[in-house]
Amino acid sequence: MQEEQRRLVAIMFTDMVGYSSLTQKNEKIALELLEEHRRILRPIFSEFNGKEIKTIGDAFLVCFDNTLDAVHCAIKIQSALYEYNRASPETIQIKVRIGIHLGDVVMRGGDLYGDGVNIASRIQSVADSGGVTISEDVYRQVQNKVEAKFTRMGRGELKNIAIEMGIYKVSPLPTSWIQDISERALFFLQQKRTRNIALASVLSLCAIWLIVAIIPQSSPEQEIQARIEKIKSEKKRPRLNIVVADFANETSDKRFMRLHDRITKLFIATLEQSDTFTVMPKSEMRQVLRQLKREKEKYITESVAREICVATNTPVFVIGSVKKFGRTFTVDVRAFDVKESTPIITVVEEAKAMDSIPSTVGHLVSAIRKELELQALEILQHDSNADSIVVAK
Fold first, then answer.
1. Which of 38, 165, 321, 324 would be a feasible disulfide site paired with 248, CB 3.0-4.6 Å?
2. How does strand 238-244 pair with strand 316-325?
């Protein structure tokens, strides 16, 4: 009889996005990507003291002695895959969903058993492509201990799990410019042979940092409004062309379809109110699809929107989606730089009922419109193709 041991561990499930469909299209490439995926992930598991329990096709089941190691490991994995994908064509990129739960499990014969394993698997299934989701139990352990942004996705029932479960999305935090300057100054001050000119520069930077810290700062809302007004005040300003994909229903709730057209029109109308960018009309998108021999596409999905952007040299596309957790709906709107695989802007909000989804979408689209207006000039300056710039009259 095999010895059983009951332990409280952090359980991680990973899963390759789109592996099954790729296997049907090109089994040879799928198997090569599977091995590359394992080659990348396994050293990272070891780095954070993770114990690989088993592989299930394209999935990993891994356990950790604590939640901090598990969350740090997940962030490192997604960072490594992001760098790998930046250097790879879209057709052979590796994207993974990761879910983490803290649970009481039975360890027997090198395997894990118990509800905790099932919960971790279900949490992984609701993660975004290239994303990390954690349970509320994990969040309580790691909050204020991990340099990451935690977004509450909602609280509801997971498939085949009897208890309601709070779910959080984990995103890495960008480094602030003040933090960057401080770290560089500290590096130079620690050198044994720092020259006088370098020391003077460091002291100047420290003085600037102190001035910034002491002088009262305007509120974030005032800064946003000031930057928007500056953009609008220019006589000739470059305009950012964007493509808007159809709103995605990820709830499996057929009632949502009666709201779909209303939400999509609200989505586009709110973005069209901007003086900073131009939304590509539906008719033009359909014309591009005909040229690409994709006229049978019923909806403008994320992948279709990306193809339209590439074909028309449009640098940005926006997509929204709604998910359901128990009785709560989670609505998110994301803006993508077509050259990148991860969103440049993401906004998320909960809706308590189906009928409140349109107003929630209105809030989110207004928020992402303001953020896009702030970033428009920077995006255009970094975009090498002049065809994506239209000068306002």
1. 321
2. parallel
pLDDT < 70 regions, the chain? 1-2, 155-163, 173-202, 211-238, 377, 380-393
Distance CA 248, CA 334 (A): 12
C-alpha distances in Å from residue 126, one per residue of 13, 84, 155, 234: 12, 23, 12, 44
Neighbours of 290 (CB within 10 A): 10
| Cα distance between residue 224 and residue 306, in whole Å | 28
What does the domain layout of the chain look like in residue ranges? 4-172, 177-214, 223-391
Give the chain's count of helices (H) and strands (E). 12, 15
* Separation of alpha carbons 67 and 84, rounded Å: 26
206: phi > 0 → left, psi -120 to 50 → alpha, else beta; which?
Answer: alpha
Nearest to 91 by CA among 26, 37, 24: 26
Segment 301-348, tens digit of pLDDT: 888 999 999 999 888 899 988 888 777 888 888 888 888 777 888 888
Query: Please, what is the Cα angle at 94 between 89 and 97, to 5 degrees?
Result: 145
| Antiparallel, parallel or unpaired: β 111-113 and 238-244 | unpaired
- C-alpha torsion sign, points 126, 329, 334, 142: negative
DSSP one-letter code for 364:
H
Rounded to an integer, what distance in angstroms lies between the CA atom of residue 321 and that of residue 100? Answer: 23
What CATH number does the domain located at 4-172 have?
Answer: 3.30.70.1230
Contacts of 294 (CB under 8 A, 6+ apart): 304, 307
CA 124 vs CA 19, 70, 99, 169, 270: distances in Å = 15, 13, 4, 11, 33
CATH domain 223-391 topology? Rossmann fold (3.40.50)
Short-list 153, 157, 155, 158, CA closest to 168: 153
How far, in Å, CA of 78 to CA of 86, rounded? 12
Its pTM surpasses 0.85: no
Residues near 225 by Cβ (< 8 Å), separated by ≥ 6? none
Instruction: Round to whole Å and give the CA distance between 14 and 78.
Output: 11
* Tens digit of each residue's pLDDT (9 = 90 or more) over 70-104: 999 999 999 999 988 888 888 888 999 999 999 88
| End-to-end CA separation in angstroms for the chain | 81
